[in-house]
Records
---
Amino acid sequence: MKVNPRSMLYGTFVLAGANALVRIIGFVYQIVLSRLLGPEGMGVYQLIFPPYTIALALTTSGIPVAVSRLVAFSNATGHHGEIKRVVSTAISIVMGLGIILSALILINLDWITHTILKDPRTRIPLFILFPCIIITGMGATFKGYFYGIKHTHQPALAEILEQLIRITTVIFMLLWLNPQGYEESAIVIVFGVVIGELASLLYLHTRYYHSIKALNGDTKTSSVFSLIKSIIAIAVPITSTRLIITSINSINTILIPQRLIASGMTNSQALSLFGIISGMVMPLLFIPFTITNALSTVIIPHLSEEMALGDWQAIRNNISHAIQLTSVVAFAATALLLSLGQPIGIALYDQSQVGQLLTPLTLSVVFLALQHTLSAVLNGLDRQKRSTLNLFIGGVIQVCCTYFLVSHPALRIYGFIIGFNLRNIAVFMLNFSVVKKLTKIQMRWADWFLKPGFAALVMASLGQCVFNLSAHAGFPLMVSLALATVTGVAFFLISLYSVNGIPSIKNKVKKQGPSFNSTSMRSLRSLHL
């Protein structure tokens, strides 16, 4: 069967595949950095990004989505002259906003580094990084254009190109220059970020230049004022949502080292522990999202169309199937990290403390994955505001626990872990209650939880047993881990099959078949951009 490269389903698979590859590359990069910088170096590096991501949310959240929608409309009506005007207007807005934000932050750089971040070593890295707001914002706008004309290859390749160039530049410079001190290392890393984003922008601009020349048709264009008004009308609500979530996460990130110091730790000890939890433990915890993001991408967009058709039975079937798939992946990841977290931390990072912190965090992986999928469901059902509210409530819980519990000498970083777990559980319960009330979906305890849970117990037990036997026999650590992982996954699948717990992806997706439309894709883009 011939594949249409502009179809929604094909574009979804391209984006999901690129996202998975970028995550894998980024995960390997985090491992290499942690070994080159150590825990405290990772702490200084992670501390740089909260103010940057807040500023970046203003230029890369709503405007690219607005561009994709306006370009798609103009492309469908044949007003190709309008497309170029939309992109150029959006680029001007991004550049103006980026210049203002960069200037404001650079003027107040000393106050940010000394008062908010409380680490003067972040000053020069931030100085280098903040002009990147303009570069990244422009790149995101060009991606919005390609999404609008249904050419998903270019944004996907740009993401991969940016990662590869950034990683190559940073590792080469770290090994070549051998920087002395964590501040110099952080400078090298953010320089690599700028180079990677610049390479991505140049690629996207080149592809845009060739693409826009190939468009023919009506040259009708709107006034600049009307285009600005249209872009702002779409961008402001999306940007506000993204800004709230990013701000909460950034506040939490900034608070952790400060509250650890308040508990009696030195600045060096606090940054080291923060570097372990944020740069080593958390990437491991988010491994299953490489798969669940792809699952949500393939299944969830069907909800928008079924919502428009009023086919609530199909909606309930799709939601149930998505929950089951997510649970299978999440329970498998939980079993792997709980049983082998300690040796994984030593093998990847040469840090025994990674396993100690990973174990309690792993307890909420299932809730974390499910609340992520249910957030996608709510977006597919046009309940974005409620999804945002639930995430905001969870973020407040996390920040409160970080502020009040992390400073307690008996808890310290475990106060953050308590807040993280409570946040995931709370958001899951809130999301599910809304979905259940809206769709009247029936609970399927066996398929959603009991069967994957049983298979996870088998996987964890046998995986741990195989690892212990292999280690006792004198096998290298990586070999023992590989044997334990392969054995655990094999018996997880066997156990799941024996209780008829393997979801039938083919039948469900095929049944919903060719029902993608522009509404569902816009809901999808709101999750990715």
Note: The two ends are 31 Å apart (CA to CA).
---
Amino acid sequence: MAVELTAPAVPARRVSARHFVRLKLRVMGNNFRGQGWRIALFVAGILVGLWLAGTGFVLFATPGFADGGRYAPMVAAFGGGLLVLGWLLLPLVFFGVDETLDPARFALLPLPRRTLVTGLFAAALVSVPAVATLLALFGLVATAGALGGWSAALVQVVGVLAGVLLCVAAARAVTSAFASMLRSRRVRDLAAVLLAVAAALLGPLQLVGISALQETDWDSLTGVSEVVGWTPFGAPWTAGIDVAEGRAWAAPIKLLITALALLALVAWWSRSLESAMVGATSSGGARAKSDPTGGAVSQLFPRAAGWGRRDQFGALVAREARYWWRDARRRANLITIAVVGIFVPVLVNLGGAGFTTNSGQGFGQGSAEPSAGLVSLSMLFVGVVAAVTLANQFGFDGSAYAAHVVAGVRGQQELRARMTAFSIYVVPMLAVVSIVIAVVLDRPGWIGLTAGGLFASYGAGLAVNSFVSVLGAYALPETSNPFAMNSGAGVAKGFLTMLAMLGTAVAAVPMVLAAALLGDVWHWLALPVGAAYGLGAALLGAYLAGDVLDRRQPELLAAVTPRR
């Protein structure tokens, strides 16, 4: 007689949000285990977050104690609205989105959508930016309490908590929606263009805002702040202020507006999450291109690098040139360079009367005539921004860099090829920037001055970033989302960027001093001297950093390989 043996049924454990939070904390702990520099960056990120939280707390709490609450509604509406916008844009275009718990990794697990959304939402709240934002916004609680007592403070606590949830939901919903849209190459490139332009305009808009604040009639903005306070951008932050000012009836309505906006964002995120989990799909087979030369190797060379030699150096240049044009993440950086290169120098020089002298030289105060020193300083900034894109150039490759290690590519040749491919796109943009700035400033004779400063700072930046990219590389997530960033990598990116920009600025300072001190003579010498200075700095940087790369190839490969 046959006996059928069956295993006893094991009751399935119900997955909840706390499991996602525990998983994120464990993954974060594993990422920093045994890596001293990762731990240092994480601690530094916490300290920076606490400093920003303290600064924000003081700014939000000041109206309640300093002026009797006259400007409290305005600070709450405008300051809170800017925070919501920051959560929408800054994670995308600056430090990326935390992909510690990538939704695509849960695609094969039998998890209900509600459980997945709730868990990922809870995990997103466990982050330094979310905690820092919460601490900063508690300054509004202090303001409401000082103006209206404990009842206003209690309402403001509810508003702040709901507002932080709104910020996190907005960030996750937008990034998830873009991740699903980016399956199409055309949409992916368009999104990269738009977001890169938006990111590049943040700095110019900040300069315009600072200039406008100096001439603003604050009393006329009261009506605007009231309108913003009735939108999801300002409703959660002004509920307690309304109670303090005797409009208790407005608080529940504003909290309801916040709740409806939060539900709408979560619903949008839930609808786009499934397609984001699927990932990128193929757009179909590529059509074979006819090669007039009949050689298979020449097909690997894009038009931008068609002049390259058919050897190892030429192949490396062709590879990098193709990736800079076709990779959405890299192309977004190129667009940022173009926008920053035009807007920042124009705004700085047209609004920089306070930095010029009566003679038009130096950096003192005086007339609104453009200053050669200030123009060179703005060109230095553009060159620094252009070159800092290569601060983590090996991170774009990831594990694909193993092919270069196996092929035995020499470090000097590797860096020279990468510089050449990147310069194919950047140098023409810098030339256009130098011409546009000179024309806008009505100084056509300064084209040599602007071009010389750009090329000198750009070449110095290539040299500095060669060392930074070899010694401070970090892994980027393997995802079709060009805005994704591994946990902790945002802090690393911020510190590496500041380090590279500082080093480049120091290396290019002689060009600025020469422009400020030599006067009209420098207008003729700036272009040849700047071009020679930049080229020499880049070649020297490739030579010195190449030796370091030869010794660190295994460590570099391990650093840029994403950890699963």
Note: Confidence is low (pLDDT under 50) at residues 1-12, 93-97, 280-294, 352-367.
